[in-house]
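Notes to self after the Tuesday call (sharing in case useful).
The group wants a holo model before anyone commits to mutagenesis around the pocket. I volunteered. Ligand is iron/sulfur cluster. Logging inputs and output together so the record is complete.
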Amino acid sequence: MIEDTWCKGCGICAAFCPRQVLEIHHGKVRAVAPEKCVSCGMCELRCPDYAIYLVNLEE
Ligand code: SF4
Ligand code: SF4
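Result:
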């Protein structure tokens, strides 16, 4: 789950994702390959703005 309002597009989550699930588009993060997500929680752990958290990346 991505909270667009809080995301500042810093790219930290994308950099820490071990499966290249996330990319930055127009200053916001997008789950470009949700099927590759292994629910490791790194994105949630590393986001400084609590803008991304695990639920179901397919939304
Ligand atoms: S939970 Fe999914 S999207 Fe987040 S860092 Fe892990 S593999 Fe990537
Ligand atoms: S780490 Fe958080 S604020 Fe930065 S791009 Fe990812 S979701 Fe957005």
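Two things stood out.
Residues 17-19, 21-22, 37-43, 54 surround iron/sulfur cluster (ligand 1) (CB under 6 Å).
Strands lie at 22-25, 28-31.
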